[in-house]
## 1
Amino acid sequence: MDEEHLHDDLRVFKDRNFFQLRLRSFFTVYLLLGLFFVLIITLFAVSLSRVSAISSKLNEVQPERKQNFSDRDFLLFPCGPGSREWEYFNGKCYYFSLTRMSWYKAKAQCEEMHSQLVIINSYAKQNFVMFRTRNERFWIGLTDENSEGEWEWIDGTDYKTTFTFWKEGEPNNSNNNEDCAHVWISGKWNDVYCTYECYYICEKPLPN
Ligand SMILES: [Ca+2]
Ligand SMILES: [Ca+2]
């Protein structure tokens, strides 16, 4: 009888001991999990702050880089990186149109782009224009519509004392109705009626 009782006591003791051990191991696991969680949160916070620090530094650097790029772009495209259709020649910018229209519309179109129809006042400029126009007709800023035979450059450049490059036999004021000038074959000038539709060349100073 006594022996049986003792046996029971021993079993209870063992069970209790086992229960305590399990409890302790659970506690350890939860503690480790908790620590791991805290560690993850900390690492995340640290990396997040680093990323934000780097991005704010990049933002500081960005305008400087942009400035450098635009300086370089201005060297490559002196007429402005944002308007690459303007071509640079000898200190000025030129636009060779892709559409055809009357001399008046072309003049207005150039003015809308803060420029004017080209003034060809030197052989160098003539050479640049004729290389670029390749026998195609392009309006220039020359007209005698105010007074027949009195040719005038639209910027007031004195016609009589400056360079000319008329085609042989031109200006001929054909049908008494040719008051506007364009470049044509070999870049030579011809007078034609002003409502004729052809390409045009605008000219403007270098942007600041
Ligand atoms: Ca005329
Ligand atoms: Ca003519």
## 2
Amino acid sequence: MDLLNTLVDKGLRRELPTREEALAVLATSDDDVLDVVAAAGKVRRHWFGRRVKLNYLINMKSGLCPEDCSYCSQRLGSTAGILKYTWLKPDEASEAAAAGLAGGAKRVCLVASGRGPTDRDVDRVSATIKTIKDQNEGVEVCACLGLLSEGQAERLREAGADAYNHNLNTSEATYGDITTTHTYADRVDTVRKAHAAGLSACSGLIAGMGESDEDLVDVVFSLRELDPDSVPVNFLIPFEGTPLAKEWNLTPQRCLRILAMVRFVCPDIEVRIAGGREVHLRTLQPLALHLANSIFLGDYLTSEGQAGKADLEMIADAGFEVEGTGEVTLPEHRAARAGGGGCGSHAEAGGCGGSAGCGSHDEGGACGSHGGGGVCGSVPAAAPAPDKAAAAVATAAEPVVGEARPDLVAVRRRGTGTDLAPNA
Ligand code: SF4
């Protein structure tokens, strides 16, 4: 296919595709999906080899948010039966970080619900970052605390944060349809503040909220313009108890096309499969590793992911390898730029490691001031967690718009905020 040959050539040269080319990737048929994956996989391997970076989410403060992001189980008015708790103590967060690192993660993402941090919250998170770094050598830390005020990014950077996550989530044109309590411009401003403070900027999107192909291309081109080091791609987890609970409109093939489009537009940027990986890609998850070079290990903020052990087995079975703490995530030209924000995993000069995944609260990364992909969920408190493997087998490939799928969404009931061990 000429389109794919052109996009591979451009990706290897770090040349931006046209909007029409990006739209054409999204418009390819299911019959062509393996060709699309193979083409985008060439670009992925050129810049990132077969490495997969593992990131680990720590939900520092869960639920009770005053913002109204439609996709979020922690939003104002959400009736999702998620865990609700206030700030973790530094030692509790450090213990959670140690579990993630033991499972193979090299970055931890500290996420808190809310519009944005107070100065006291920044003090609190700064103390947590110091504790985690003192107790876990070599760890990269990304903060995801919502909208930042003047000076807060600098303070987080001084405290040792490597990165800051805040997702754009969707196109500027549709932003007002999913959230009314803050604006798209607010989000762009926070990503710029993080960048300016020398933090590695992480910013991504949520797919599956009813947006058009044009919206998806718009947000990905906007992200590319902001020049983050990492782009988490969340697939909406439609939680019962949120306005988007019935928005089931993704197929595994559609998810692969979206990831391929993001890879072609952001060839040398860390692309992370964030929340919704298990729910929407299901048995096609391994194919997505040919497109993205980063995932979250284990559970998400308010929903459960597949077991960390299953993540590691999937990576090995698909012929990929977990990126080590001594390896630099980003290609040399990116890792070497900006003294503080370059990311690349512990290059001597202080680059971080490749960007994180949260989203100011997406699911994958947190919420949407906090991201989207993986966060919350809404399954009645008494419901047992579904068997993910069985659910995957039983699930039809075609999306079912308008019907809730509690069999695919499990509220997190282990790890931080509970007495149970995490599944990292
Ligand atoms: S995405 Fe973040 S800001 Fe929005 S409702 Fe959820 S926790 Fe609050």
